[in-house]
Amino acid sequence: MKWMKKRQLRRNKNNFRRLSLTFIALVIVLSGTIFFLSWSKAQHSHAKSDNGTSLSTTADVKESTSSTSNSNKQVIYPTIYIAGSSGSVTPVDWLVQRLLPIENVPAHKSLAITADVNKDNLLKIEGQISQDNQYPMIEFGTVKGTDSGSIYSAGLQKVVSYLMQNYQIPWINLVGYSSGGTGAVYYMIDTANNPNFPPVNKYVSLDGEYNKATNLQYGESLTNVLQNGPLIKTQMYQYIEENYERISPKVQMLLLEGDFNSAKQTDSAIPWADSFSIYHLFKNNGNEITSTLYPTKASHSQAPKNPTVVKYVKNFLYGTP
């Protein structure tokens, strides 16, 4: 009997040992499975984060940063003085220099910006906008001369985009001299209702070109042009005529043209019939618009130096004599 009991005890011990080993093995396998599933899930989550959540978070950070930086940007109300077909900012600089000082208005000369139309509108920026300059006067040129409204517009859009990246701009004013007038109107058409560009508040046309310097035709009068537009409509003019309604009727406009030669009705380069050819369009559009033939003994190229011009521009833009 004793030996049978001992044998049974040994058998029970062996069974217990086998059960223990089996249990331990199951625990190890189960632990390994749990570890593998956890690791796999972690890897899947990490991969998802890299491909989606991480980018979304970055975008949120960028948007938040942009919002924060935008709130810290200087608020300005710039006036952009657009040069003529020479491409140089010199003529509009003559005007800007003569507008100064502007009493009781924090407006000062600031930047001279060129967009090289031969180099994908590569910007060259000179000067700075000081903290006390709430109404900076910015000069713009195209480097290479042009009278193409679309080329002007592309360059202006790049300039305004640059300004928007660095400043808060509720609205802008435009002053277009000669072919710069073509560019200003094309720009207003091309950026109308585009939230990436600030609205235009006021526009001054100084001896502006809108109909490729087309003279009055036989039997046509300046009164006819002011009421109904020109008889001959060039491609330049047709683009404006087909799209002018895109421009907000809230834009106030002043069309200035020099009475240099009354007999020929020209400022020596741009006929009155051309400079005033867009009047009836914007009158019909509901814009507050004035056409003014100012007296002058100076030719078209000297218009920015004209004291009479300076007074008109100063009063219209800044409300000061």
Describe it.
This is Alpha/beta hydrolase. It holds the Pfam family DUF915. Residues 50-59 have a biased composition (Polar residues). InterPro entries: AB_hydrolase_fold, DUF915_hydro-like. Residues 46-70 are annotated as: Disordered. The protein is α/β, with parallel strands linked by helices and 321 residues long. It folds into two domains: 1-72; 77-318, Alpha/Beta hydrolase fold, catalytic domain (Rossmann fold, 3-Layer(aba) Sandwich). 46% of the residues lie in helices and 16% in strands. Strands 3-2-4-1-5-6-7-8 form an eight-stranded mixed β-sheet, with helices on both faces. The chain is globular, with a radius of gyration of 36 Å. The model is unreliable at 1-7 and 33-68 (pLDDT under 50).
- Level of helix content? 40-55%
- According to CATH, the homologous superfamily of the largest domain is Alpha/Beta hydrolase fold, catalytic domain
Q: Note poorly predicted spans.
A: 1-7, 33-68
Q: Assign the structural class, choosing from mainly alpha, mainly beta, alpha/beta, alpha+beta, or little secondary structure.
A: alpha/beta
Protein name: Alpha/beta hydrolase
Organism: Lactococcus lactis subsp. cremoris (strain MG1363)
Pfam family, one: DUF915
Brief description of this entry?
The protein is of the alpha/beta class. The protein is 46% helix and 16% strand.
